[in-house]
Amino acid sequence: LIFSVGLGSVYIAPLEVIRIFLSRLPLNLIRDWQETSEIILFDIRLPRTLLIVLTGAALGGSGASYQGLFRNPLADPYLIGIASGAGLGAVIAMSIEFPTTLIGLLTVTIAAFVGAMITVAFVYNIARVGKGAQVTTLILAGVAVGSFATAITTFLMLRSQEQLRRAIGWLLGGFALGGWLPVIALLPYIIIGLTVLILFARPLNVLQFGDDQAGQMGLNVERVKMIVIVAASLTTAAAVAFSGIIGFVGLVTPHVIRLVWGPDYRKLIPLSIIGGAAMLLLTRISYCVFRYAIRNTKYAIRNMLTLTSLSLHYGSRTILRDINLKLSRGEVLALVGPNGVGKSTLIKIACGGLKPTHGDAVVDGVSLQRLSPEERARRVAVVSQALRLPEAFTVFDTGTHRVFRFARQRNRSRQKNRLRRNGAHLHHRTCRTKSRRIKWRRTTASANRPRADSSRAHFING
Fold first, then answer.
1. Could you say which of 63, 176, 264, 433 would form a disulfide bridge with 250 (CB–CB 3.0 to 4.6 Å)?
2. Residues β-bridged to residue 381
C-alpha cells in the first residue's frame, strides 16, 4: 500500500510516504518534504489506492461466493447480468441530459448502481419457478437479460455519437474518480456485503452437496441463495458503479486461493477478499513500473524538457518557487519579463548549470543532475547572452571545439555535413568580417552538438 501510493507521475519515496503519514499524528517531525507531495498523497493517491483496494476486495469476495452458490468454476461477479445492467444504466445517464451530480455523486455512478440492482432483481424474478430459483435457471436468465441489456447499450452508444468515447471509457473500467467521496460512498456497501458473505461461508460449504442434500441436512436453501445473491450483487454493483467493469479479478482470484488453501469457504471467501485487493494493487504497481520502464527506453516518446516543482532559494530569499513545465520536440518557449525576475536563473537550472533547491530538470527522460558534464553537453546546447567567440576561429572550428573532448571523436566531413544541414554552410568563414550573418552562423554553430540524433534541448539566453 505504501509503495503503491508513492508511484505516479511524481514519485514519492516509501520512507517519505511513511513520514508524511506520521505527520498527521501528534509527533514532532521535521517537515522537510514539499507541500505538493503531501497534497498529492492525501488528495489523489491515497483515495485512489483505497478505491482500488475496495474494488478488488468486492470482486474477489463476490466471485468466490458466486462460484460456491452456482457450483460453477466459470462463475464470476458478472454472471447474472450485473455488468450489463450497470453499463446500461451508465449509458442511459450519459445519453439523457441529467444533472452532472446528484446528492454529491456523479449521476453516471448512481445510474450504474441502480441499473445493476434492477437487472439482478429482474433476473431473480424470472428464474423463480414455483417456490425457488434453480441454479441453472438463474444462469440462463442472467445470460438472457444480460444479452438484452448489452444490445440496448450498444444501440444507445451508436445513437449518441458524441457520448460514444465517454461510454467506452467507462465500460473499460478504471479509477479516474478522485477524492474521498467515492471511497466514503462505497465503503458501507462493501463492509455490509462482504460481512454477510463471510457469515454465510459455512452454508455455502453445505450447498456443495447439492440443493436436495443440503435441504435434507437442515439448510434453508432458498433463503441462503437469496441472501448470498443480494449481498454479492450489492457489493459488485457498488464496485462497478464507481470503477466500471473490471474483469479477471473475480474469476481468477478464488481459483488461485483454492489451489493453495483448499475449497473450504470459511477460508476461501476472506482470503479471496484479500487476494482480490492485492491483485488489483499489484496490477497498478506493475503498470506504473512498466510505464516508467517504457518512458526510459531508447525508443520512448518523451517530453524533450520537463521541469518538476523547481524551486531555488539563496539564503532566505526565494528566486524561483514551484515551477512546472513540459515541452515536446519542436515546441519553442520564450521567457519574457523584466530584469531580476529569474529568467536567466531558470535557464541555468534547465540546462544543468545550476542545481535547484527542490525539484528536478529532465531532458529527454533523463535527469540532468545525474549526468556527467560531458554527457550533459551532449544533450543540452546553450547560447549565452555574452558568448565569447575567438575571431580567428571559423564557423567549423567553433562547432567542433565548443564541446570539450568531442572534437577528435567525430569525422570532419560528417561534422561539415551537419553544419550545412543546420544552415551554417559558410563554415569556412571567420568572425573578422563585420557580417552579422556570419556572426550568427558562428553563434548557432557554438550550439552544435556532436551527437548522432537530434534529441537536444537548445537554450538561447539573451
1. 63
2. 458
CA angle 5, 8, 9 (to 5 degrees): 150
> Rounded to whole angstroms, how far apart are CA atoms 417 and 148?
67
Greater model confidence, 381 or 114: 114
CB 102 within 8 A of CB 114: no
Kindly report, residue by residue over 121-174, the tens digit of the pLDDT.
999 888 887 666 788 888 899 999 999 999 999 888 888 777 777 788 878 877
**pLDDT at residue 451, rounded to an integer:** 43
DSSP summary character for residue 30: -
Instruction: Write the CB contacts of 69 (distance below 8 Å, at least 6 apart in sequence).
Output: 75, 135, 204, 207, 225, 228, 229, 232
Going by the DSSP 8-state scheme, the letter that residue 332 receives in this structure is: -
Confidence of residue 109 (pLDDT cuts 50, 70, 90): confident
At 270, which helix (H) or strand (E)?
helix 265-295
* Average confidence (pLDDT) over 216-236: 90
Quick: pLDDT tens for 312-330. 887 777 888 788 888 777 7
In this structure, the strands spanning 457-460 and 380-383 are parallel
Residue 402 has pLDDT above 60, yes or no: no
Q: Which domains, and CATH codes, for the chain?
A: 2-293 (1.10.3470.10), 305-460 (3.40.50.300)
Question: Do residues 323 and 310 touch, judged by C-beta distance below 8 A?
Answer: yes
- Coil, strand or helix: which one is 324? strand
Q: Residues 303, 347: contact at Cβ < 8 Å?
A: no
Spatial distance between the Cα atoms of 107 and 87, rounded to a whole number of angstroms: 13
Contact 50/181 with Cβ under 8 angstroms?
Answer: no
Q: How far apart are CA 30 and CA 298, in angstroms?
A: 40
Among 399, 355, 357, 408, CA closest to 381: 399
